[in-house]
Amino acid sequence: MPPALLIFGATGFTGRLCARAAVESALRPILAGRNREAVAALARQLGCDFRIASPTSREALSRMLCDVDLLLNAAGPFSATAGPLALACIATGTHYTDLGADPHVFELLLDLGERAAAAGVMILPGVGFDVVASDCLALHVAKRAEPAVRLRIALGGLALISQGSAKGLIEHAGLPTPVRRDGELVSIAPASLERVFDFGLDGRGPQPALAVSWGDVITAYHSTGVPNIEVYFEAIPAVRMMLLGNRYYGWLMSNPLSQVLLKTSTALLPEGPSDRERESREVVVVVEADTESGTTIRSRLFTPEAYTFSARAFVAVTRRILDGQAEPGFQTPAGMYGPDLPLEIDGVRREDLDDAQGPALQRTRRSSAIERTA
Predict the structure, then answer these.
(1) Pick from 102, 169, 186, 240: most CB atoms within 10 A?
(2) What is the pTM of this model?
(3) Which residues of the chain, if any, have pLDDT below 70?
(4) CATH 3.40.50.720 boundaries in the chain
(5) What is the rounded CA–CA span in Å between residue 159 and residue 168?
């Protein structure tokens, strides 16, 4: 029998994209979740087996994973599912991956690393756009700047959001923004750290960006060892409003009743961007590294729309794991598979912005490398 892949949360927006991408890549996933009717319907549509379990039942999770080699957790909020599913994977000898980006969840999974290593299990969170694109570019730039003393990671073009992602962001209400200083995580007020980045999108030139709470403060440190790290989002009006609201009204938004009301209100949003919207969008990661000598090294990574990239990145990582490329314990995408992993995905290109001869443009390996001037 081929190695068994199980996707938990397969009926969510990103989970469905990943399930379809897996089937199209002949990976034959088992689909799983909490809602039998929804999971069974998707399984019939894709020609897959399915299983039902609640993340609150240790016994049900163990039965679900008893013969599974690899789990993709696509079920948000990850603050509720990552811990129980990772523990079930450790108990059953199943490698764990997810599509999360919450630094607090990444910290929890990092703390499980030793137990996972003892069980021969790899814990590899963030195998979608978050954090494959940013983690791999961070390692690429850190190597170019060696030794780097600071990384600034900025994400641009993220104007589209699913209901599930919106619920995850709502959980950050009332929480400070984590950044890394001298190797330690410290907290700053939301919307208190702003910087301009040249995202290279739509000819708009440099744009302001605001520091956010994102998983790279954990993963980029683990992948690169650089002691000072900040993560930014392009400050489009929705992002600025969200962060300012969190700064001044987070105390109100974080109480239990407000959380219920805000999460319920996400039902008014589209479940996720349409196929046409995803096909027409491009997103970008910019990473800057400061060296000991005061030089700043910059690179950009352009990818397809984030949800589309997530499904493709999940397939790329899954193939490696099922081929035996796994190391027990807590791992990161770049730490496991190197900085060039995104270049194997269709529609990806990378620019080194400060080359003396102009930015070198590196495309997916399915296309030939080309050069263009600044």
Answers:
(1) 102
(2) 0.89
(3) 1-2, 159-174, 248-255, 258-263, 265-273, 355-374
(4) 5-128+307-337
(5) 16
SS3 label, residue 94: coil
What's the token pair of residue 334?
């770049």
Structure token digits, residue 246: 């969190």
Helical residues (DSSP H) of the chain, grouped into ranges: 13-24, 36-46, 58-65, 78-92, 103-111, 113-118, 129-144, 163-170, 216-224, 237-253, 256-265, 275-279, 306-322, 333-337
Tokens 């744009």 map to which residue?
207
**How confident is the model over 2-52, as pLDDT tens digits?**
679 999 999 999 999 999 999 999 999 999 999 999 999 999 999 999 999
Q: pLDDT tens-digit profile of 211-240? A: 999 999 999 999 999 999 999 999 887 777
Angle at which helices 13-24 and 306-322 pack, to 10 degrees?
A: 50
